[in-house]
Hints:
Helix content: 10-25%
Number of helices: 4
Number of domains: 1
Distance between the termini: 42 Å
CATH superfamily: Galactose-binding domain-like
CATH class: Mainly Beta
Amino acid sequence: MKALKITIWIIFSLVIIYILSMFFVFDKKMMITYNFNPDDSLRFSALYPWYRLSPIEHIGSDYSQKIKAELIYFMVRIPPNFNEANLCVKYSDNPTSIKLGAEKANDKFEFVDTKSINIDSQWKKACANFNLRELLLSNYYIKNNKLTFAISAQGINDQNQLTLTSIDLNLIKNYNKSEFKNFYARFKGYIKR
């Protein structure tokens, strides 16, 4: 009987730890990757609107999706208390330039400086940094810990499509000692969201 009680408590503890890990991240860094695999997109929404995209292609173990219009969107569920986000998009080598942005409260997007680097002769990676604290304090739209990002690719159309293979979001948490002083108030504010 005692072994059964211990087993039940261990299972209960593991379930609580799993649930907490879905909402709180205990590390200082977290990488969220979307590889266009429909089965593993817990934190990323699919790209939208659908009519600006080709269907997801599956070749071997790799997935990709082509953009047919200049502007597409996706949402990411971001755990609380991260300060910075580095968004990177891997895309086919194409003469078009890519810009990355985040949604403001008035349904407009603000695009930030985006750096593109060549990975090899076929692929490039465009990256942009976002200060999540400033986004929360300024006029950006973050609801239920979801932030909408945009990818703008100039000159894209049905004949000149751009292939995306992955979207990486690297989240960074920088602690200030003053943050621990008002932990209770911050926790209470998180619960009210």
